Automatic annotation (TrEMBL), chain A:
Native species: Pedobacter changchengzhani
Upper taxonomic lineage: Bacteria, Pseudomonadati, Bacteroidota, Sphingobacteriia, Sphingobacteriales
Protein's name according to its UniProt entry: Uncharacterized protein
Automatic annotation (TrEMBL), chain B:
Keywords recorded for this protein, A-Z: Membrane, Transmembrane, Transmembrane helix
The protein, known as: CHASE2 domain-containing protein
Organism ancestry: Bacteria, Pseudomonadati, Bacteroidota, Sphingobacteriia, Sphingobacteriales
Organism per entry: Pedobacter changchengzhani
Keyword match Phosphoprotein: no
InterPro entries: CHASE2
SMART domains to which the protein is assigned, alphabetical: CHASE2
Length: 300, 407
């Protein structure tokens, strides 16, 4: 009996410790979508909620009749509220739990599922095992960027890059951070991303993110913007251009553009491509220029 | 094990044939199969308690024939099929590759590319026209199951004259060992990509494939990707390759990995050197289709022994084992338990060897799982049977070779 008591006591201690540790990790929330009228009360101030707003534990959310509010937790789980009423943000933790049970409960759930779910095999039910197609896909992507690089180095944002998309128009969003999500700019476009709007927010040097039309918790679809300070930017560009050789100014400009593009300085690359084109209008680089870049400017 | 006679008595040595005819041997053998049946009837999956089963999930010992014994390692280059590597080509370039192959008078052109949605209108228009008008072009599409209903997925599906689903049969991310020649759903009949190609290339061969009426076929991996002639699609378009190599050939347009680490459209096959656990996928889908096509054309199908043969083999071998076990347990062999276990293990290895041998030399797969299970269970069931027979003897006068004395 003594042995059983010790085991039970240790089990409760472990469970208690686990739950208290979990409760210390307070989730943050960001508003992903607002339909209708939703407001929050924070520090006795009432404000209407809009996409990108933050919600913290002491806040209270009010939903009007027929409204829907979609929130994203810090761990990327999303949930929605659609019943009229007043909600304390502190009660939202339950929606963000990554799993629905403790370690022990999950283990026994796994054992139970394995014991009880029907097992078959490709030999017995081949039609149930036909989920692997032996072919590549051409044209499945929801959008195609004109660039392959994942990271863009920039200082000012007077450039744009092209993309094609199956569903028009696309929404392009720029983030200051992804945990929690902090949206800086949201824009709609048919075929190009303007970095000018982002640059106008005067971002401090650092890492920023952007994505097209995908839910933000799909990390693989996030692209990186590496904002450098003016000195660092110009020094690096000068170092890259110091490698340029060529027979004439046009060639040197094209090569400079190419090297800058390779080093992910796309804004600067566009300038050098344009320069080369102005010096040699017959150059085929014009096709490349128009395929990759767009003139920056107002977006739709 | 307890045996007949007293402790001091020395039992007369009898031949194995004598024990084979003995009622206890036959009843014990039947008991083994009854126990196997009972285990199969338990409505829970006991493999959760079996780490070997979990570790060897999706393992088939026949894979060893390819990966370790080098089955088909010395087969010749396939001269019927030419693979055109589309690499990163877009739709327009793919359309050009089809046209080049068509102009070269290829026997059939299989396009192992999924065009799921609309893309560039001009390229789509060219492709649409190609699939719609050319009688020897076969388009691949994806067949997926939605609430038990099979649905084709492909932007050009309705327009394409010849088409086949590119799906293989296997666990997700698992080893591809089988393909289903066709899926019949209601009035609809979907052909696999390889079947559709064979149908255009050689209707007689297609009839043979259809008449086999197999729910699924085991893919005979007779040729690695190195055994197929691969040409660059880009060079084909640019006229850097003589198109005469495509004349009267089965031309397959598909993606060929740039290197070993490029796993796009790459799958695990029995040829993979890492035959358990997770290795790197080893074969592009286009070469798996090529293997299926050449298997059908060369009539090199893999055969499987019928279930009644598998059961008969299992019963006979189990019967012989039980006879030996009873003989040596009764005839005062002090090392019986150890030897019996060793014999079980040795026989298990031997039976797997025999199964592999048949597959290697005769392209025939014998399911030795039943035999293995029966032989491994035989000893434990015999212990149980002995106790049960003695209980029957004590209470009902049941005649048995076993006795209460302990040796």
């Amino acid at each position: 009996m003594m042995y059983i008591r010790i085991v039970v006591s240790i089990s409760f201690f472990i469970l208690g410790f686990s739950s208290s540790w979990a409760s210390e990790k307070m989730p943050q929330y960001v508003v992903y979508q607002v339909i209708g009228k939703c407001s929050k009360v924070a520090l006795k101030k009432v404000s209407l909620l809009k996409k990108g707003d933050f919600l913290n534990t002491p806040d209270v959310v009010n939903l009007a009749e027929g409204s829907t509010l979609i929130l994203i937790c810090a761990n990327y789980k999303a949930f929605q509220l659609n019943v009229k009423g007043k909600y304390a943000v502190s009660t939202f933790k339950k929606y963000c739990a990554k799993s629905d049970g403790s370690f022990t409960a999950n283990y026994f759930r796994f054992v139970w599922d394995e014991l009880t779910h029907p097992h078959s095999s490709p030999e017995v039910e081949p039609e149930k095992y036909m989920k692997t197609a032996g072919a590549v896909t051409r044209g499945q992507e929801k959008y195609n960027l004109s660039i392959r690089t994942d990271t863009i180095n920039m200082y000012d944002g007077d450039f744009g890059i092209r993309f094609t998309i199956t569903k028009e128009p696309a929404t392009v969003k720029f983030f200051a951070s992804i945990n929690p999500f902090k949206i800086l700019v949201s824009q709609q476009s048919k075929d190009f991303i303007s970095f000018l709007a982002f640059a106008k927010t005067q971002p401090q040097p650092g890492v920023y993110y952007w994505y097209i039309n995908e839910l933000p918790y799909k990390k693989s679809n996030l692209h990186v913007l590496n904002v450098l300070n003016e000195k660092q930017y110009k020094t690096t560009v000068a170092q890259i251009l110091s490698k340029v050789i060529g027979n004439n100014d046009a060639d040197r400009a094209f090569m400079g553009g190419f090297l800058l593009e390779q080093e992910h300085f796309l804004g600067e690359a566009q300038k050098y491509y344009k320069l080369g084109l102005s010096l040699n209008p017959e150059s085929k680089i014009n096709q490349r220029l128009s395929r990759i870049f767009s003139e920056s400017g107002s977006v739709l | 094990m307890k045996k007949a006679g007293t402790k001091k008595s020395v039992r007369k040595k009898l031949s194995v044939w004598h024990y084979l005819k003995n009622r206890d041997t036959i009843l014990a053998t039947i008991s083994v199969f009854l126990i196997m049946g009972l285990l199969a009837l338990i409505p829970i999956n006991t493999h959760i308690l079996d780490p070997f089963k979990l570790a060897l999930h999706d393992f088939n010992y026949n894979d060893l024939v390819y990966s370790k014994m080098g089955k088909n390692k010395n087969t010749s280059i396939d001269t019927n099929i030419v693979v055109v590597n589309i690499a990163d080509a877009g739709r327009l370039e793919i359309a050009q590759m089809i046209q080049k192959s068509y102009d070269a008078k290829a026997k059939v052109i299989g396009v192992d590319v999924l065009f799921k949605v609309a893309k560039d209108p001009s390229a789509d228009s060219v492709l649409n026209n190609t699939f719609n008008t050319k009688n020897n072009v076969v388009m691949a599409y994806n067949l997926y199951e939605d609430h038990s209903i099979f649905k084709p997925e492909g932007y050009f599906f309705n327009q394409a004259k010849n088409k086949g689903y590119a799906n293989f049969v296997g666990e997700e991310e698992g080893v591809i060992r089988y393909f289903k020649p066709e899926v019949a759903y209601g009035n609809l009949n979907y052909l696999s990509f390889a079947s559709a190609i064979v149908k255009v290339a050689n209707p007689i061969t297609f009839d043979q494939l259809s008449h086999r009426r197999k729910d699924f076929e085991i893919i005979n991996y007779r040729k690695s990707s190195a055994k197929y002639l691969v040409v660059s699609g880009e060079k084909l378009i640019n006229g850097e390759i003589s198109t005469s190599i495509l004349t009267n050939k089965i031309v397959l347009l598909g993606y060929v990995g740039k290197n070993e680490k490029d796993i796009e459209d790459k799958h695990y096959t029995p040829l993979n050197a890492v035959f358990t656990g997770r290795g790197v996928p080893d074969m592009n889908g286009i070469f798996i289709h090529a293997n299926i096509i050449s298997m059908a054309i060369d009539d090199a199908y893999v055969h499987q022994t019928p279930n009644w043969i598998n059961w008969t083999i299992a019963f006979l071998l189990c019967w012989i084992h039980i006879a030996f076990f009873i003989k040596y347990s009764l005839e005062g062999h002090i090392w019986f338990h150890l030897k019996a276990k060793l014999v079980s293990l040795t026989m298990a290895v031997l039976f797997v060897y025999l199964g592999l041998w048949f597959f290697y030399y005769f392209d025939t797969q014998i399911n030795m799982t039943l035999t293995l299970a029966a032989v491994i269970l035989a000893l434990d069931v015999l212990y149980f049977y002995e106790s049960f027979a003695l209980w029957l003897h004590k209470n009902w006068g049941f005649k048995t070779v076993f006795h209460h004395d302990v040796h």
